[in-house]
């Protein structure tokens, strides 16, 4: 079965499944229906992982809760001109995301130091590195204690209540209710334009802060495309894969830049990284260089995907969508050129 069909069959309020290889398109998904889907799905994710996150022994549970807050915030941003969301919902999502992030950031750095650095550390740095890991583990434990306390607070229960209420009764911001596919396509187009405008997409050696900003843009585009697929059955499989790969490699570069900055600061004598780390610094620089080369390869793949001469070929990739009054085009942008990545036609 084509990938687009799989996406549509799993969407809330989506295509009805008849025979194993037969799908009947449903009515177009509206923005209110898309809002309901997002709130219900991310509320379920938070509830599913909360118990393990409170215990703190499963870093993946904390990561998945953090992703759920990000997906919900991405959905609210995409629909903000059409669907009214309670201010308390946005504020509580941000509050929870920060507490989850404090633990997750420690998990990432500890993984980098423990699994990738300690076994290969230079003899002169090994004992110091082990002590540093122990100190960061204690800091992680304190951050987790704050998270566990947050997950027991009434504020967290009110967040779940906000999501449940929003899933049940989202409110339209005036006028006629638009079809979600169009709204989300326009939002993805704006995110594509933001990526195209980034110097990181053209500079030979973008600075670290520019790569970090580019990572955030790709992350937002990925979540927008995933929301589009889940809500409307639009499966921009290649674009989603490329956006995720870019996000991942840029995240790996950022993690190493962050750690390198902490090590450099420690040379001045302050904080848990105090002292010189020449062997560890050299290893980090080599790892970053390998990942930067991978970023350049993936950047070329992104450009290939959006070249004007590729537009015709892209329309042949299988897609499945809910019924639409007119075809919808997702536009991803490279430089000053706008390229139709795929035109999705009515299946009626």
Describe, in plain words, how this protein is organized in 3D.
It is a single chain. The protein has two domains: 27-178, CHAD domain, CATH 1.40.20; 179-348. The chain is 68% helix and 7% strand. The protein contains eleven helices and six strands. A two-stranded antiparallel sheet has the order 1-2. It has a two-stranded antiparallel ribbon with strand order 3-4. The protein has a two-stranded antiparallel ribbon with strand order 5-6. Strand 5 (328-334) and strand 6 (337-344) form a beta hairpin. It is flat, with a radius of gyration of 22 Å.
**What is the average of the pLDDT values?**
80
Biggest β-sheet strands, sense, barrel: 2 strands, antiparallel
Fraction in beta strands: 5-15%
Determine the structural class based on helices, strands and strand pairing: mainly alpha
The gross shape turns out to be flat
Rg over CA atoms, rounded to whole Å, is 22 Å
- Elements, N to C (H/E): HEEHHEHHHEHHHHHEE
Proportion of helical residues: 55-70%
Q: How far apart, in Å, are the first and last alpha carbons?
A: 18 Å
User: How many structural domains are formed by the residues?
Assistant: 2
Write the layout of secondary structure elements.
Blueprint (H helix, E strand, L loop, with lengths): L2 H8 L5 E2 L5 E2 L6 H25 L3 H21 L3 E2 L2 H31 L5 H30 L1 H15 L2 E2 L7 H18 L10 H25 L4 H30 L11 H28 L5 H4 L13 E7 L2 E8 L4
Helix pairs in contact: 1-8, 2-3, 2-5, 2-6, 2-8, 3-4, 3-8, 4-5, 4-6, 7-8, 8-9, 9-10
């Amino acid at each position: 079965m084509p990938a687009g069909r799989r996406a549509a069959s799993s969407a809330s309020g989506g295509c009805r499944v008849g025979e194993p290889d037969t799908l009947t398109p449903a009515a177009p998904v509206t923005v209110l229906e898309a809002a309901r889907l997002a709130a219900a799905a991310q509320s379920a994710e938070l509830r599913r992982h909360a118990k393990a996150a409170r215990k703190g022994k499963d870093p993946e549970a904390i990561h998945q809760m953090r992703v759920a807050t990000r997906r919900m915030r991405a959905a609210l941003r995409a629909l903000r001109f059409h669907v009214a969301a309670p201010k308390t919902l946005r504020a509580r999502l941000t509050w929870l995301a920060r507490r989850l992030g404090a633990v997750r950031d420690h998990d990432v750095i500890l993984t980098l130091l423990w699994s990738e650095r300690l076994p290969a550390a230079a003899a002169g740095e090994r004992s110091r590195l082990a002590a540093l890991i122990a100190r960061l583990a204690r800091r992680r434990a304190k951050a987790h204690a704050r998270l566990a306390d947050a997950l027991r607070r009434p504020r967290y229960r009110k967040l779940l209540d906000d999501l449940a209420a929003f899933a049940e009764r989202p409110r339209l911001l005036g006028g006629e209710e638009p079809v979600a596919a169009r709204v989300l396509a326009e939002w993805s187009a704006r995110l594509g334009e933001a990526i195209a405008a980034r110097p990181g997409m053209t500079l030979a050696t973008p600075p670290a802060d520019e790569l970090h900003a580019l990572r955030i843009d790709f992350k937002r585009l990925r979540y927008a495309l995933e929301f589009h697929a889940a809500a409307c059955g639009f499966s921009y499989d290649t674009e989603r894969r490329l956006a995720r790969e870019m996000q991942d490699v840029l995240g790996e570069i950022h993690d190493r830049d962050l750690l390198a900055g902490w090590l450099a600061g420690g040379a001045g004598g302050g904080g848990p990284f105090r002292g010189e780390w020449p062997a560890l610094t050299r290893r980090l620089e080599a790892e970053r260089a390998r990942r930067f080369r991978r970023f350049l390869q993936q950047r070329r793949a992104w450009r290939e995907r959006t070249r004007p001469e590729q537009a015709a070929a892209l329309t042949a990739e299988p897609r499945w969508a809910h019924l639409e009054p007119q075809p919808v085009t997702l536009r991803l942008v490279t430089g000053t050129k706008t390229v139709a990545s795929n035109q999705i036609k009515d299946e009626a």
